[in-house]
Amino acid sequence: MSSELPVQRPRNDIEPAEPLDNPGLPEHLPRPTDVDPAMERRAERQISAFFGLATLLTLVFCVAYFVVPKDATFLGWSALNFSLGASLGLALLAIGIGAIQWAKKLMDDHEVIEMRHPVASSEEDRAATLGMLNDGIKESGFGRRPMIRNSLLGALGVLGLPAVVLLGDLGPLPGRTQFSTVWTKGMRVVTDVSGLPIKAADLEVGELVNAEPAILFETDEEGERVLEGTEALQAKSKAAVIVVRIRPEDITAPAGRENWGVDGILCYSKICTHVGCPISLYEQQTHHVLCPCHQSTFDLSDGGSVIFGPGKRPLPQLPLSVDEEGYLIATSDFTEPVGPSFPEIEQES
Amino acid sequence: MRFLSRRRRHPLAGFVVLLLGLVVAGGLYSTLAPRSAGADTADARQVETGRQLFLVGCAGCHGKNAAGILAAKGGNYGPSLVGVGAAAVDFQVGTGRMPLANSSQQAPRKPPVYTAEETAALSAYVASLAPGPAIPDTEYTDPSDEADVTNGGEFFRTNCTACHNSVGAGGALPGGRYAPPLDDVSGKYIYEAMITGPQQMPVFADSVITPEDKRDIIAYIESVSEEPRYGGLAGGGLGPVSEGLFSWIIGIGGLVVAAIWIGAHGARVKKQT
After folding, report:
1. How is domain A178-348 classified at the architecture level of CATH?
2. What are phi and psi of A199, to 5 degrees?
């Protein structure tokens, strides 16, 4: 390879002349305040006026704190917050302006050149530091007493273990809990917040219902909720659904799901299959539901298929039917896990 | 009585008696006259007025019988209005969304073209075509003190926040469409939008969200839009990330510009004295 390299040209002995002379520092010009005593006195007065203004505004802050009522408003903002912020902010600004004017107009005005120097410490400093370190090692007997040294190193090493042991709090492993929700065959679909059962005949085309499984609102014989606290929230976070009614002729049901709806009423998981945001941004004319987090878009008239965005799986659909009173019920749990995908889904299928 | 009998031959006495007779007769008629017949004819007249207005201003897209006009490519120029009800007309015309100025992604809110009376006539005409949602009762659209703002907030955050933002500031939808801000929308139009589902908005019928709950939702919207903005400029409630980014770029950028300006300025005297 090296033989193929072009032969380096001998260096030209003649140094090229500098195209321009080093201009050096620009000529020092004095400021008006340096040459005119009247201007100097004026600048002095200006600067102390700014500092005086700052004092005044700080006092305004203290007075406003006691005088302005808490519920008064100014231009739609809290009058108290506005007066406190404005007075203190302007006081700080006045101190800043005064300081800058002082530096620029009155403080001594001369150019300073600071030469660059190497970052490393001097040789003597480095030698002295190393000497102190070696002295310390010798005096402590660190090298001479291996039992003490090794037991200390062991103690420090074991200190890392608690950090590893505490990782156990990240568990326990979820097991099969991700594959099922609280929905069961025959459970009523009820409205979120109010828990009303939904009559299939009452739903209009274009309607959207944010719904939940009835068990979240059920009470036992003592009037206590069947599911409470963390348990209820965990159940809700997986089982939340949206119910929509679409004209039956607009629906193209995937194979095997033809009878999962009731007269165009379809029910899907409300949890986005990307990272699990709750979605109910539904456009009734396009039948699209959009996740506000990362813009995954699902077509509810086409089996909840992904038509845009980072979502990978279609929205899981909940098979619906009606009970003898005409209220919507689920005919089973979701047939696939709801929410974000996880590695075990792939292994399962 | 002597006061009256003494003045019975006064030149104005006849006039006074006539006036008294007219007032009594008119008052009696207005209280005793059969009311329903009059109301019916008034309704029929209003429907007829509405029909005339419709033929002039709406039939171009919605068809002479309000049944919609189908486009050759599929879809329609204007949808059928049979069964949309008075509430839909009152919302679309009352907020200026209809008549449509041009066919864009979405009909924007604009100053209404029709007067309140004309809007009522149009609503009456469309309502006469087929049953549909009626204009809501003021009991539910004008929240009083008994409205439960907390309950309304729960319903709002469950059903409305996805599009309209948690304080009703509005938000973007796909394809250039948007959910409008709600802070200066009257309770009647909010209620009507919920029961009729205008444009891309889904329907939230009274069977699913009861009129009392809708009243609470309206009370919540009014309550959050009346909150004083203690933090100064609200930035549409977009959240700490976007608002923080804005203040970093504008705020720190402004400070840098100010520092450069301070460093670049300073008077110098040309001549040495």
Report:
1. 3-layer Sandwich (2.102)
2. -85, 125
Out of B211, B226, B241, pick the residue that ends a domain: B226
Judgement on whether residues B209 and B156 belong to the same structural domain of the protein: yes
| Cβ-based interface (< 8 Å): residues of B facing A | 151, 154-155, 158-159, 162-163, 171, 173-174, 177, 197, 199-205, 207-210, 213, 228-232, 262, 266-270, 272-273
Structural contact between residues A210 and B204, judged by C-beta atoms closer than 8 angstroms: no
At B34 the pLDDT is 54
Distance from C-alpha of B76 to C-alpha of B62, rounded to nearest angstrom: 9
Q: Where are the beta strands (DSSP E) in B102-181?
A: 171-172, 178-179
Q: What are phi and psi of A189, to 5 degrees?
A: -90, 120
Alpha carbon distance A80, A70 (integer Å):
6
pTM of the predicted model, to two decimals? 0.71
Last residue of a domain, one of B226, B242, B263: B226
The domain limits of chain A are 32-106, 178-348
Q: What is the pLDDT of residues A109-121, one digit of tens each?
A: 888 888 888 888 8
Confidence (pLDDT) at B233: 65
Domain that holds residue B79: 42-127
A154 inside 8 A of chain B by CB: no
- Per-residue model confidence (pLDDT) at position A187: 94
Taking the CA atoms of B109, B115, B120 and B123 in sequence, report the sign of the dihedral they define. negative
Residue A102: what pLDDT? 94
H-assigned helices in chain A: 32-35, 37-67, 79-101, 123-140, 146-158, 161-165, 229-239, 343-348
**Touching check for A34 and chain B: CB below 8 Å?**
yes
Cβ separation of A196 and B208 shorter than 8 Å?
yes
Give the closest of B202, B232, B272 to A284, CB-based: B202
pLDDT band at B158 (very low <50, low <70, confident <90, very high): very high
Task: Say how many C-beta atoms besides its own lie within 10 A of residue A2's C-beta.
Answer: 4
Low-confidence ranges of chain A (pLDDT < 70): 1-16, 348-349
Nearest-CA distance A174 → chain B (Å): 28
Q: How many domains does chain B have?
A: 2
Q: Are B199 and A285 in contact (CB under 8 A)?
A: yes
CATH of the domain at B84: 1.10.760.10
Put simply, whether A142 touches B (Cβ < 8 Å) is no
Answer whether A281 touches B (CB < 8 Å): yes
The pair of three-digit structure tokens given for residue A277, joined into one six-digit string: 């945001």
Query: How many Å lie between the alpha carbon of B205 and the closest alpha carbon of chain A?
Result: 7
* Helices A79-101 & A37-67 angle (0-180, nearest 10): 160
For residue B131, give both structure tokens: 């049953």
pLDDT tier for residue B92 given thresholds of 50, 70 and 90? very high
Phi, psi for residue A187 in degrees, rounded to 5: -75, 135
> How far is the C-alpha of A340 from the C-alpha of A291, rounded, in Å?
13
- Check if the beta carbon of residue A342 is closer than 8 Å to that of residue A178: yes
Q: Is residue B170 situated within a structural domain?
A: yes
Check A191 against B209: CB less than 8 A apart: yes
